[in-house]
Design goal:
10 strands; eight-stranded parallel barrel; 300 residues; metal ion binding; two-stranded antiparallel sheet; alpha/beta; lyase; globular; binds 3-hydroxy-3-methylglutaryl-coenzyme A; hydroxymethylglutaryl-CoA lyase; EC 4.1.3.4; binds magnesium ion; Aldolase_TIM; TIM Barrel
Amino acid sequence: MNEFVKIVEVGPRDGLQNEKILLTLNDRKNLVLDLMKTGLQHIEVGSCVSAKWVPQMANSDELFAQLPQSPDIQFSLLTPNIKGFESALAVGCKEVAVFTAASESFTRKNINCSIDESFEKFADVMAAAKANDVKVRGYVSCIVDCPYEGAIDSQQVAYVTKRLFDMGCYEVSLGETIGTATPDRVKKVWDACLAELDPQILAGHFHNTYGMAIANIYQSLQQGIRVFDASIAGLGGCPYAKGASGNVSTEDLYYLLSRMGFETGLHLDALMQASRNISQVLNRQNPSNYANAYWQSRCA
Ligand code: HMG
Ligand code: MG
């Protein structure tokens, strides 16, 4: 049996949060319904954050409530504080994600507090999550470069990552937020983290601004990482990281993993249909090389 790699689909959240077009709740729901047909087992459907800060994610709790639940698919919502957690809990969400960064300046721009203060807010979320049997995933942004501070020390990344585990996260996703990293620098980050933590509980989250996401994922695979975040049709970016483009596309990640002999559980045709549908809704060119080659070969 081939080794399994877990893919966390973040397109409905990380993707749409940075798209200029504000989608209706119905369009966001249709995206998730399409993704549910692809074999994806983990889908981040939105964020319970301030709609003044990120209007694209408004009413994510309502979106969650409208989705059909499936025993095979774990939905999650981003919750930066107890207010967000309570919104997620009220609609029956069983997995949330807290997010901080290895950079003080980014944390301030993103969630309006210091790294230490972010952990104070997460302590409330953790306690409430434990009491309500909700799983908590963690994110660390700016693992290589910060748009405000430049290069980030890998030891600082390892420190913040470990702190999230010590607090109770079951998995921590390391975010290469602005997509400037190359594999040599990614290796240093994993080296620092793996000195203290098992690879099974870590995830890679690579943005593709400079086209390096697949190379960085290949490097991560060499170091034993087996969980990756991805966005259908390479959607999005981060509203607090100017110029940063979307995540690695789920389609390109699928191609890399399946060609390398990993199992992903994804169904190719449904994945391609989901990617085509959202690209049409947003009226945008799909940056995924694999998706474009797939559709070209079907037309030939
Ligand atoms: P704040 O202004 O410091 O919060 O914002 P506050 O507690 O002072 O409250 C101010 C107002 O926000 C109040 O409303 C609160 O009720 C409301 P008002 O009285 O003015 O009408 N509020 C909320 N509303 C909805 N949901 C909440 C919530 N909390 C307070 N949870 C806050 C703090 C975190 C809310 C704000 O900074 C925020 O919403 N930031 C958005 C952060 C965000 O979504 N960033 C993008 C996701 S992270 C990311 O993309 C990186 C990642 O992909 C990894 C990577 O690539 O690196 C994960
Ligand atoms: Mg991101």
